[in-house]
Specification:
This protein is an alpha+beta fold and about 250 residues long. The chain folds into two domains: about 40-150, Alpha-Beta Horseshoe (Leucine-rich repeat, LRR (right-handed beta-alpha superhelix)), CATH 3.80.10.10; about 165-245, Immunoglobulins (Immunoglobulin-like). It has three helices and 18 strands. Strands 13, 14, 16, 17 and 18 form a five-stranded antiparallel beta sheet that branches. The protein has a four-stranded mixed beta sheet with strand order 1-2-3-7, with no helix packed on it. A four-stranded parallel beta sheet has the order 4-8-9-10, with helices on one face. The protein is flat, with a radius of gyration of 32 Å. About 20% of the residues are buried. The structure holds zinc ion. Zinc ion binds next to strand 3. It holds the Pfam family fn3. InterPro entries: FN3_dom, FN3_sf, Ig-like_fold. Keywords: Signal. This is Fibronectin type III domain-containing protein.
């Protein structure tokens, strides 16, 4: 009897796990939230597909943040799309929003045509917009709303350079040593001229911090510099180091 119960229990467990497996295999459509206006709701922001189908419109706001950062892209109908326009101030100023950060792709703030402006009906009251300087979004808000510039974090950071620690001359050789920095490559150039004219270049891997330059001319001074390469970008050249004559 005991054995039988065990058997049935096992059978039940197997059936259960099988149904679970099948259940997991059936794709469940992710529930999309809808706002009271019937628009798709993303973090309190209502969106709809733009007529062109390649971007979204911001329709309304149902959240309660003081500062609303409009995302750079939204997922809608299986597409990842940038926002291009606001339909109107539907819930933003009403719900106490004071600041809206706009992605560069927003090029229209909805109903702000001349008639609306004349009627004093320009919406977004008491809201300051944050935009990138020179962006479409700046143009879109410029005429009728206070705005401030965002600090541009997309600007490429300059590649960090290095410095030559030592340059020792031994006969026709010179031994160089430079400071290790994070980079992909080091590039060394040396010349008999301080302005680096007719210089020769040597490239070293990121794990090297020294180099022996050969076949230098006797009784000649040389000048040497190092720079780093990260990705496709180079740092500035280091200060010129003199390789004394021998
Ligand atoms: Zn809504």
């Amino acid at each position: 009897m005991k054995k039988r119960t065990k058997f049935y229990a096992l059978l039940l467990a197997m059936v259960l796990s099988l149904t679970q497996m099948i259940g997991a295999a059936v794709p469940v459509k992710a529930a999309t939230k809808e706002c009271s206006h019937g628009y798709t709701l993303v973090n309190g922001i209502g969106i709809r597909m733009h007529e062109c189908g390649e971007s979204v419109c911001i329709t309304c706001y149902h959240g309660h943040s003081k500062r609303v950062v409009i995302p750079k892209t939204f997922k809608l109908n299986g597409k990842t799309l940038p926002p291009s326009q606001f339909d109107s101030d539907n819930g933003f100023s009403e719900n106490g929003v004071k600041e809206i950060v706009l992605p560069d792709t927003v090029s229209s703030m909805g109903y702000w045509d001349e008639e609306d402006v004349e009627d004093g009906n320009i919406g977004f009251r008491g809201i300051t917009f944050y935009v990138h300087k020179g962006s479409k979004a700046e143009k879109a808000v410029k005429r009728h709303n206070p705005y401030k510039y965002l600090k541009d974090n997309t600007k490429p950071q300059p590649v960090k350079g290095t410095t030559i620690k030592r340059a020792v001359r031994i006969e026709k050789l010179a031994k160089l040593k430079w400071k290790k920095v994070k980079c992909d490559k080091y590039e060394i150039r040396y010349s008999q001229k301080k302005n680096m004219k007719k210089s020769k270049k040597v490239t070293c891997g990121k794990n090297k911090t020294s180099l022996v330059i050969k076949k230098l001319k006797k009784n000649r001074k040389y000048y040497v510099q190092v720079r780093t390469k990260a990705g496709k970008k180079y740092s500035a050249w280091s200060k010129v180091k003199t390789i004394s004559k021998r």
